[in-house]
Design brief:
alpha+beta, Helix Hairpins, 2 domains, 4-stranded antiparallel β-sheet, 8 helices, 29% helix, elongated
Length: 276
Amino acid sequence: MRYRRGPHATLTAMKDGSVMFESSYDTELVAQLKAKVPYQARKWDSEQKAWFITPEHVPIVVDICTRILGIRPEVPALKINKSETRLVFLQYLGGTKDRGGDEPIAYGFCDSDNGSGWNLIFPESVLRAWFCDDADPTEAITLYGILGVKRNASAEKIKKAYRQAARTHHPDADGDAEQFRAIQAAWEALKDAGKRARYDSGLAMAATLTAAERPAPKICWRPPVRCGRLLIEGRDVLGKFRVERILQWRDVRDRKNHTMISYWRRGDNHFTVRWA
């Protein structure tokens, strides 16, 4: 925000679809902007001393300026980026975290024609919709969701998903012993036909309960795999591509048919890739 005399606030539409917001400095205004505009929908540019926000959140910024500065900035013609389909090479997918938006999101490190970087955003609901039936991030994850399979998955598919998830989240690669134990427990329950049938009956009974009666999630859900070649739908948001739908997810294999696995050891400052 530029330092000028007297209160001021302006909104400028940018070519990439974002909106530049400049105003006089006010601590309450900054606090309100950070509280009401999600982290992934705003970006501070220290050189230009301005915020860049998504067009969808312009009304929120206008309301904040009106209430705090007593100024209602003129709203420019806004450009809403259209949804498009992309084929990407996802090298590493982080865990989902609450970053102040409507739901938890995960960042993905992507190797693309425009360069490599953390330029993919995956809402948790999008990941869950692809990997399992538990699409609602507010609902407790099931054993099927832990392994990343649909509830009608065959025994062979469950076995394959278990091996992939266990290999990805093994403590030697990830250090996440809790997640690995959850994967092991899910496999022990679902590999046995009798145990699986009883578990399915429990899920059917739980579906009749109200939201308040249902148990809360015991672990933080993580996707069962972290890398692959993806066909995705989404749109550009402040220099990142926000995924709205996953159309395809394939393993990356080398000439010896080894599968690419990426992991992040505790204490490292970057992920590591290995082939298994």
